[in-house]
Specification:
By secondary structure, the protein is mainly beta. It has 1 helix and 11 strands.
């Protein structure tokens, strides 16, 4: 009688273990990494890849708190017509520089990011203002974006269908060498956004 009782208990344990494993296996198959994005309500949401920058917080894009005021350089990114498209910040990270980017209103897709040797995205031109005094104003379009500096090519930034994108990347350039340079976003070989890097 003892043998049949033990066998019955053992059988129940084995069945309970198999049932639990089956439930866990079913649950894991529902979490496959091969899920496709869907626009249908109640289905899988669109995946978010990469490290997304919180609005207004370029310095801490990698979720590692930085000391207040730790950004040693910034750049406001402009379109060729001078419209605001986003911003970049630069933080010292050893002998390299961490570059945090945030853009909006851009064409969806992948864009190259480069730090270049030019000192300004726009060449100034003389324009007459009220009273006849000339002043400098940007020419429509980027006129001289210079050449990529050594170590200044970044992996790039992906812009979603809404025209927004963010990225955190590191360049092997000392932050002191970035002052007075520009950061350029390109589609192919065409500059689509540019900003003058200014040391803080």
């Amino acid at each position: 009688m003892t043998a049949s009782l033990i066998t019955g208990v053992t059988t129940k344990r084995v069945l309970a273990t198999l049932a639990a494993a089956g439930i866990a296996g079913f649950g894991l198959t529902a979490c496959t990494p091969d899920e496709h994005v869907s626009d249908v309500p109640g289905t899988n949401p669109a995946p978010i890849t990469g490290n997304q920058v919180e609005p207004g917080d370029l310095v801490n894009a990698d979720d590692v708190p930085a000391a207040p005021g730790s950004a040693v350089g910034t750049a406001n990114l402009l379109s060729p017509s001078g419209d605001a498209l986003g911003a970049a910040s630069f933080v010292t990270e050893g002998n390299s520089t961490k570059v945090n980017l945030r853009v909006s209103g851009m064409t969806p897709g992948s864009h190259k990011v480069e730090v270049r040797s030019a000192s300004s995205c726009f060449a100034p031109k003389e324009v007459e203002v009220e009273g006849g005094s000339p002043t400098a104003a940007p020419v429509g379009g980027f006129t001289n974006t210079g050449n990529v500096i050594a170590g200044g090519s970044l992996p790039g930034i992906a812009v979603n269908e809404q025209g927004n994108g963010s990225a955190r990347q590191t360049v092997t350039v000392n932050v002191a060498d970035l002052d007075g340079k520009i950061v350029v976003l390109l589609t192919g070989d065409t500059a689509v956004a540019c900003g003058n890097i200014v040391a803080n």
